[in-house]
Write a structure and sequence with these properties.
This protein has helices at about 5-30, 35-70, 80-120, 125-160, 225-235, and strands at about 75, 165, 170-175, 175-180, 185-195, 200-210, 210-220. It is α+β, with helices and mostly antiparallel strands. Helix 1 packs antiparallel against helix 2 (about 35-70). The chain is globular, with a radius of gyration of 22 Å.
């Protein structure tokens, strides 16, 4: 089993190597070495700080997954082909719909900020154009990233079926581990969402100095496990 943070660790190592190699190559090409090494040094420092953090977190996640697979779960759900692939298709359709909405949502948020800025600053047109345009730009950047991530997950699910293991600190489904047991993480809500198939949705809050955000983790409910899903939702409601 490959830990879900492995690709981030590899990417950080690549960035660390590039932070040294690229400045060397540019210096050999005659580019100003001071600016190059300052940028490279900042990147290298960030990588050196992140690597042990990622490695520690990866080991922690690996132990948590092993505990789930060894029987330390609240529920273990298995799927037939129709349930699993139906869930993969439904989630991919949901992701594509969200991607199409993102630019409009970010633009709308930017326009609201522009209106507030106009009320206090008086520069209505300029503020609206800058805030709305900035929101649209952010939406056009985020939407492709969300699309690519959703497509990767969809392809993975279509290539290989997986079970779902629900524990008190996280969910392991189809090779992906999601947890609310970490710095700045909290389980905000667990609820049963109707659909074809119905899902048990975990809302995980993420809190940083820059603000708060939330991630929705949706677990397909196999046939015959609806009552168990409702009981799990009630159980988690007492801990959130």
């Amino acid at each position: 089993m490959q830990n879900q943070l492995s690709k981030w660790i590899r990417g950080t190592w690549v960035a660390l190597v590039l932070s040294v190699v690229v400045p060397l190559l540019l210096q050999m090409a005659g580019v100003d070495p001071v600016a190059i090494w300052i940028i490279g040094g900042v990147v290298a420092l960030c990588c050196v700080i992140m690597l042990p953090i990622l490695a520690h977190t990866a080991r922690k996640y690996g132990r948590a997954v092993q505990e789930l697979l060894a029987g330390g779960y609240l529920a273990h759900w298995q799927y037939d082909a129709d349930e699993w692939y139906g869930f993969a298709e439904a989630e991919w359709l949901r992701t594509r719909r969200e991607v199409r909405r993102l630019p409009l949502e970010f633009t709308g948020a930017g326009l609201i900020i522009g209106v507030l800025g106009g009320l206090f600053g008086g520069e209505w047109l300029g503020t609206l154009l800058v805030a709305g345009g900035g929101g649209l730009f952010i939406g056009l950047v985020v939407a492709p990233l969300m699309y690519l991530g959703g497509r990767h997950l969809y392809r993975r699910r279509m290539q290989e079926m997986g079970d779902a293991y629900i524990g008190s600190r996280g969910v392991y489904m189809g090779g992906q581990y999601y947890t609310w047991d970490g710095m700045g993480l909290s389980l905000q809500q667990v609820e049963v969402k109707p659909g074809d198939p119905p899902v048990l949705q975990f809302t995980i809050g993420m809190h940083t100095h820059q603000g708060s955000s939330a991630q929705e983790v949706r677990v397909a409910i196999p046939g015959g496990h609806e009552a168990e899903a409702e009981e799990l939702a009630r159980r988690f409601s007492f801990t959130t």
